[in-house]
Amino acid sequence: MRKSGSIISKAFKETMKFSKPGVNEAHLYAKVDFEARLGGAEFLAYPPVVAGGNRANTLHYISNNQAIDDGEMVLMDAGCEYHGYASDVTRTWPVNGQFSEAQAELYGAVLSVQKDCIEQCTAGSTLDQVYHFMLLGLGRSLQNLGILSSSLNDVDLNRVSKMFCPHHVGHYLGMDTHDTVRVSRSNQLQHGMVITIEPGIYIPAAEDSVPTKYRGIGIRIEDNILITDKGPEVLSQECPKEIDVIESIMKR
Ligand code: GLY
Ligand code: MN
Ligand code: MN
């Protein structure tokens, strides 16, 4: 699992460097596949999502065949299989290598919630608990950005956040991407388990309840987490996710 996470992380890094305005989603798909195989993976673990601009708001977008315009972000969800073990990583980055102010605000909100959620991944907690923690964190961030009313209480925030993140915080990961689907997310996490943590904020272009500058942006950040007795170990830690790191590697 560590090797699978490491291979796909390096493939993402090369794919970020390869991005430029006008690149086709298909080329980024080919690049991540190529780099994962070069790194030793047998194949990609599932059809990846490579979505430019507003297409990132279609959760299971796999057409992966459109040009990505200058000023847009690209959301890539890709994993590989290494000796039967799957990784499942998502990153979102500006295709031109430079976050706009609005993109950085939304991205910063998702990143901060994602890091807080990872800290919750210790033995004894459950994916469902981390999910509710995520909804509250996203809700508070959306309030800070002026997207949600500051008068909403925690119960309402939990409900309304689901409109902006209509999927769970994560799932078990192993020999399948969605591993052991019959194991409930209310089971306690144990040492040795691997899960994904993948919060997102999705704002379709037509969402006119949200300030214009945030419309048409979809962001997800997904890492693979091993539960250990020393706390969470991020198996995809080599995959850049800080704004300054992404901008700096894309300059090269
Ligand atoms: N790649 C599928 C998922 O993130 O769950
Ligand atoms: Mn994924
Ligand atoms: Mn996943």
Automatic annotation (TrEMBL):
Coiled coil: none annotated. SUPFAM superfamilies: Creatinase/aminopeptidase. Its cofactor is Mn(2+). GO terms for cellular component: mitochondrion. GO terms for biological process: proteolysis. Keywords: Aminopeptidase, Hydrolase, Manganese, Metal-binding, Protease. Transmembrane segments: none annotated. The keyword Hydrolase applies. InterPro entries: Creatinase/aminopeptidase-like, Pept_M24, X-Pro_dipept-like. Residues 1-229 form the Peptidase M24 domain. It comes from the Eukaryota. Signal peptide: none annotated. Belongs to the peptidase M24B family. This is Putative Xaa-Pro aminopeptidase 3.
